[in-house]
What we know:
Layout: H1 5-10, H2 19-26, H3 37-49, H4 51-54, H5 58-62, H6 72-80, H7 82-85, H8 90-99
Amino acid sequence: MCINILQVYSSKEFCSLGVNQLNEIISHDDLDIKEETTVWEAVVRWVQHSREDRLHHLPSILSHIRFNLLTSDDTAAIFEHSLVRGSPGSFEIIRDLAQKENFNLKPRHWMTTEMAILFRAKS
């Protein structure tokens, strides 16, 4: 499931998951995603599928998103999202998670880091 997570997120069955199942999936280190924003987008899709019934779960779901892996622009966009503004306590949770230096939240297994290696060879 982790390797095919993009197909899982876009399936009809994804929106029928319970909150515990959703939390279990999005907390995996082995999700095959390139950016953490993919997890946020999946959460938005799940909540919006039944907004009135699910919005109150958003604060507990947010702790499974690795805000330390998002850019400041991505975090700002999430702060402004209608789900966050409509969910009491969500703004504060995101602020706390984004400011917290949590070294246990490493990039997911499939995230790549670009690196340039320069060296000087002797002639």
